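re: that complex we talked abt at group meeting.

here r the seqs, copy pasted straight from the sheet so there may be weird spacing, ignore it
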Amino acid sequence: MKKTVLILTILCLAVALFAAGCTPATPEASEAPEETKAADTSWDDIKEKGYFVLGLDDAFPPMGYRDEETNEIVGFDIDLAKEAAKRMGVEVKLQPVVWETVTQELNKGTIDVIWNGCTITEERLEVIDFTKPYMNNKQIVVVLKDSPYQTFEDLAGKKMAIQEGSSAQKALDANKEFKDSLTEVVPFGDNTKAFLDLDSKRVDCVAVDIVVFNYYIAKGTDKYRMLDTALGDEQYGIGVRKDDDAFQAELQKALDEMYADGTAAEISEEWFGSDIVSDVNE
Amino acid sequence: MKHLDTLLLTMLQGSGVTLSLFAITLIVALPLGFLLSLGRLSKFKPLSGFIWFYTWVMRGTPLMLQILFIYFGLDFLGIKITDRFLAAVIAFVLNYAAYFAEIFRGGIQSIGRGQYEASDMLGMSYGQTMMRIVLPQAFRRVLPPISNEVITLIKDTALVYVIGLQDLMKVVDGRAITTLDPTPYLFAAVFYLFFTFVLTLGLSALEKRFAYYEG
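got the structure back, here u go
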């Protein structure tokens, strides 16, 4: 008798757990058709909050990084964002996240935009939306200044370091012949570690954004040189959730204004010494 | 090194996150682990079986995976946790409670049957036996492995970078990346060594205090 009671209890628990597991799915399924009819409250929500949250990898100079002296998050993207927020009548809050999970953070809702030198790629477009491109970028190959490599062919049989999850990986894939000629492509969590490997000659080259390379040069690092041939051209965009059409429209409006009236060019001159943004084909 | 004062200040702030995660995890996971170990030793098979399953899952999957699951994965099951620190605490508590449960269980089980028999002879109930005879002895047995886990915990806190928490390691990593200078890592090592030193001192003092028989 006791055993029977026990078995029945376990069966009941199992059924209860199973039911609990199923239930969240059903309300969602019936909600979905309604959602498309319901109004897009994304911009209203932001206005009510009074701010939008900008997600970034806070160690990606010069786009977004921590100032050594004040530990404040600064950068080209930050200045653009603050200006855009001002025009939209809201504040911008900065939330450091981990780059590998940045699209999940956006879709989870813990950040409202990805604004961190984020390249527009097909894979990302499958899960998020982007504003129109706000800056051009190139993926390049960097070698040690005193090394003999000048072209992709010179690097056949050599090793490369690259940032995991970056569009540099994608750009490399697009250069199949070059990629196949390399003996090893070592992924690292960030570009600095990739460059440390280059310094120690454990690898012979690094694939990276030209923006990052220029930052290192500006810092006075004299040991690197870039190859003349680029891996590929790409564009930076601001990542937003697919459903946030109203918010995206407001953001785009602010950006368009900034580009039209020259503010974006000004910010570019501050950070890069010249206007490198107004030429982005909008 | 430039701006050393800012670095040290931010490292102290990061240490705040590290140490509070450490403390909260211990405060919740130790009692929880103890309760789980008692349940595991219970004659009620479903309870003991469930806890066996729980410890298998929590010890059998990487802590980093668990952190990511609690923060991102639960969303798909309808449970949305947006507070990063809370997600980290939940993952750490569940994980470490499993390890503590196994340690406590081992400690309790290592107390010889003779103790139970003698207590029975003296007319003690199961509760009295546990409280007065078995658990005090088991406590001394589990101190070394518990100390080990505690020291591991302070380092495991570095894993929270995956959900964007600014702990000591993340602060240092960010500075090293931005300045292209690996020196901050050395400072981080010193900080962690200092924490471990304090912990080791405290834990060995605790062990000495309970070493009645060893003279």
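couple things i noticed - The CA atoms of residues 151 and 168 of chain B lie 16 Å apart. Chain B has one domain: 2-213.
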